[in-house]
Every structure is written in structure tokens, then in C-alpha cells.
Specification:
- The structure holds 2 protein chains of 2 kinds.
- Chain A is built from 4 helices and 2 strands.
- Chain A is mainly α.
- A two-stranded antiparallel ribbon of chain A has the order 1-2.
- In chain A, a hairpin with a 3-residue loop joins strand 1 and strand 2 (about 130).
- Chain B folds into 2 domains: about 1-30; about 30-199, Beta Barrel (Lipocalin).
- Chain B has an 8-stranded antiparallel barrel.
- Residues about 20-30 of chain B have low confidence and may be disordered.
- The chains are: A mainly alpha, B alpha+beta.
- The interface of A and B includes residues 42, 116 and 119 of A.
Chain lengths: ~190, ~200
């Protein structure tokens, strides 16, 4: 019938959802690598300052995309499981695992924000907008938020590796289109 | 009956006031001071050259200590200070996090820095050289530095105070801090400005 490729439908994800999924996936892996790299830079490395600024700029932008993505998810229907043989419990687990990933991304980005704003300084995003610090702060905020940021970053990367492995399992072992439908935009074919 | 009660009250209060008086007399004779951290009349500051082009200043917000000092026998003076290294504050959270981390002070493993004097020698009424053991990042070294008495006397609230200032230069590498900040920034200047309230 209609081939609305923008929105999700019962069987597949729409263009926007797919685009945001991959944009965030690539960006998060890039930020993870950048984060590991920048903390090893020393004071006399030319990129000592620039790498951190870039990490903050991209991270704050990603937070906006995360909010948009969650809103988009709320106004769209979620496609049914691509695995027709999946039990109700498996479908539920997959659903909550996805929500956990959203939650993790959110807290990860907020913890990063709390490091840089612990002294009341704003974060200048690409020199365009200034995200102010919260009016309240807590003792040793930069250290506590920093530890949380590091632990959650590793957790998110491990979970998304598991998420990717699960997609491969669906593709190669269960032989369903879980992975393909996240790569290929197809309108509803009712 | 009434009269007896009154007498008792009077006697008690007289006794109490004489006890108080003797207490205050003994405190006048004492030469022990507690550093006024509650009123924040004491500061532990550091400064280090940034790239060799300017000074970067910071401080430790949490510390405690005491000293004893008697004008009549100044060379019996003593001082001890304990600094909470995690209270470092250079007015920039990202830098503070770095300075508190493993590259510098490693405050989770070494939460305190201490100084305990072993010998204080006054050359005149105001100036002295303090020698003592300083521990930072698990390394203890004997250091000597000059201090000067700023002043002493009654405060307006019934106490008695004395204050000193001292500065010293520490080589970062001596305390296991080898992160390269550049050739101009191998030493940190520490400054201690303290006021003690006599106890």
C-alpha cells in the first residue's frame, strides 16, 4: 500500500529510526575510542586540548540526538520481532534490553556533562551554544562523575558488542531479517 | 529554706566561676594553638608555572593541624598539618580531576599529605627556619623552609591568636610526580598561611 519509508511500520524500521540508530552507533564507538586516546595524551601533545573539546562537543550533540530518538520511538510503532519463533519472554527481554541501552546512553552522557560542569563552568558546544552547569553540585563531583563515566562507557561498549553479536546470531543462525531490516529501508508492503 | 537555697546557688556559682577562672588562667599559660580551619583563617596554597609563561594558583580546601608557640621559648615551637589531598581546588574541575588522578597526586591511594616539624629555630622575634618531615604521595622527606610570624594578640571575641606564613619549593619528581609539564614546571611553590587560636 503506502510506502511510507520515513516512519516505522509493523514489520520494519523507518528511515529516521535507522539513520539515528547507525549515527549513534558510529558516534558512540568513535567517542569511546577518542575518550581512551585523549586521556593518554600528555600536556605537550598538540591535541591535548582539542581532543577533549571535540569529545565534549560531540557528546553534547549526541545527547540531543538521543532525546530526539527516544521521542521518535514514542511517536512511532515499534516493529514486531523479526523472529517469528521468539517466545513472549524473549521478546520482552529484547525490549527491556533496548530500554536499558537507552538508559545507559543517557546516564553516560549526563555523567560526562557533570565532570566538565562540576566547577560551574558551562560547556560551549562547537562555540555555538553554551550549556550551563546545574545550579547544584556535590563534593568531588568531577571524580565521582568521572568514575561513573568510565565504568558506563565500558559497560555500554560491551553491551553493544553483545547487541551486535545477537544481531549476527539472528542473521546467520536463526536466519531471520533482524539485521537486514536495520540496514535496508523498506516501506510497508501490506 | 529560701535563704538556704539562695546560699547554695551563690556558693555554686562562685565555685563555678573560680573553676572557670582557673581554666582560663591555665589556657593563657598554654602555648598550644589549633589552626582556625572553622573560621577559615588558614590557607594551604600552591602555585606552579604554566608553560613558563604565567603562574597557576590553587589551594587545598580541607586540612587541619595545630602548633605550639611560646614567645619566651620560641625554639620549642612545634607544628603539624594534615592535608586532605582530594580537596585540591584550582578553580577548574577538569584540571582538578586530572591533578587528583594517577598522573599527579593519586588521591584515592594517598588521601593525606602531612607535615610534622622536628626543629624550629628562630633567628629573631619573627623569623625562623622550620625543619620537619613532609609526606606526599607516600613519600616522606625532610624539608626545611623559612617561616615568619605575622602577629599575635587578643581577638575581639575573647580568644588569643597567632599567625605565621611560610613558603617552600618542592620538586615534583621527589614525590613520584613525573608527568611532563615542561621544563619551567618541575617545582611547585607551596605556601602555608595559618592563624591559630590558643586552646
Amino acid at each position: 500500500m503506502s510506502s511510507n519509508i520515513i516512519m516505522n511500520n509493523e514489520n520494519s524500521y523507518g528511515l529516521i529510526a535507522i539513520a539515528m540508530h547507525w549515527l549513534m552507533a558510529i558516534t558512540i564507538f568513535f567517542l569511546f575510542g577518542l575518550g581512551l586516546y585523549m586521556v593518554e595524551l600528555t600536556y605537550y601533545d598538540a591535541w591535548y586540548k582539542g581532543s577533549l573539546d571535540l569529545h565534549k562537543n560531540i557528546g553534547m550533540t549526541l545527547f540531543v540526538i538521543l532525546i530526539l530518538r527516544i521521542l521518535w520511538r514514542m511517536v512511532n510503532i515499534t516493529p514486531k520481532s523479526a523472529d517469528k519463533s521468539a517466545s513472549k519472554a524473549e521478546v520482552n527481554i529484547a525490549h527491556y534490553a533496548h530500554l536499558l541501552l537507552y538508559l545507559l546512553m543517557g546516564i553516560l552522557m549526563i555523567s560526562g556533562y557533570l565532570i566538565s560542569t562540576a566547577d560551574g563552568r558551562a560547556i560551549e558546544v562547537f562555540g555555538v551554544i553554551s550549556i550551563p552547569a546545574l545550579p547544584i553540585s556535590f563534593e568531588n563531583q568531577e571524580d565521582i562523575a568521572g568514575s561513573i563515566h568510565e565504568i558506563l562507557a565500558w559497560t555500554l561498549i560491551l553491551l553493544s558488542a553483545g547487541h551486535a553479536l545477537a544481531a549476527f546470531k539472528h542473521h546467520f543462525i536463526n536466519k531471520n531479517n533482524t539485521l537486514v531490516r536495520m540496514l535496508k529501508v523498506s516501506g510497508s508492503k501490506n | 529554706m529560701k535563704k538556704t537555697l539562695l546560699t547554695t546557688v551563690l556558693t555554686t556559682s562562685l565555685l563555678a566561676s573560680s573553676v572557670l577562672a582557673s581554666l582560663s588562667v591555665s589556657s593563657v599559660q598554654s602555648a598550644d594553638y589549633k589552626v582556625d580551619v572553622e573560621g577559615a583563617h588558614a590557607f594551604v596554597q600552591f602555585k606552579i608555572k604554566h608553560l613558563g609563561y604565567s603562574w597557576l594558583l590553587g589551594r587545598f580546601n580541607t586540612f587541619d593541624g595545630g602548633f605550639s608557640y611560646d614567645e619566651k621559648s620560641p625554639n620549642n615551637a612545634k607544628i603539624n598539618i594534615e592535608i586532605d589531598t582530594a580537596s585540591l581546588d584550582s578553580n577548574h574541575a577538569e584540571r582538578d580531576k586530572h591533578l587528583k588522578g594517577k598522573d599527579f597526586l593519586n588521591v584515592s591511594s594517598f588521601p593525606t599529605a602531612t607535615f610534622t616539624s622536628q626543629n624550629i629555630t628562630f633567628s629573631d622575634d619573627e623569623n625562623a627556619v622550620v625543619t620537619g618531615k613532609f609526606t606526599l604521595k607516600g613519600v616522606t622527606k625532610t624539608i626545611s623552609f623559612a617561616v615568619a610570624k605575622v602577629g599575635q594578640g587578643q581577638d575581639p571575641w575573647g580568644g588569643y591568636r597567632a599567625g605565621f606564613s611560610g613558603t617552600t619549593s618542592l620538586k615534583l619528581a621527589d614525590y613520584g610526580i613525573t608527568y611532563n609539564l615542561g621544563p619551567a614546571s618541575t617545582h611547585v611553590e607551596m605556601a602555608l598561611h595559618i592563624e591559630g587560636v590558643r586552646i
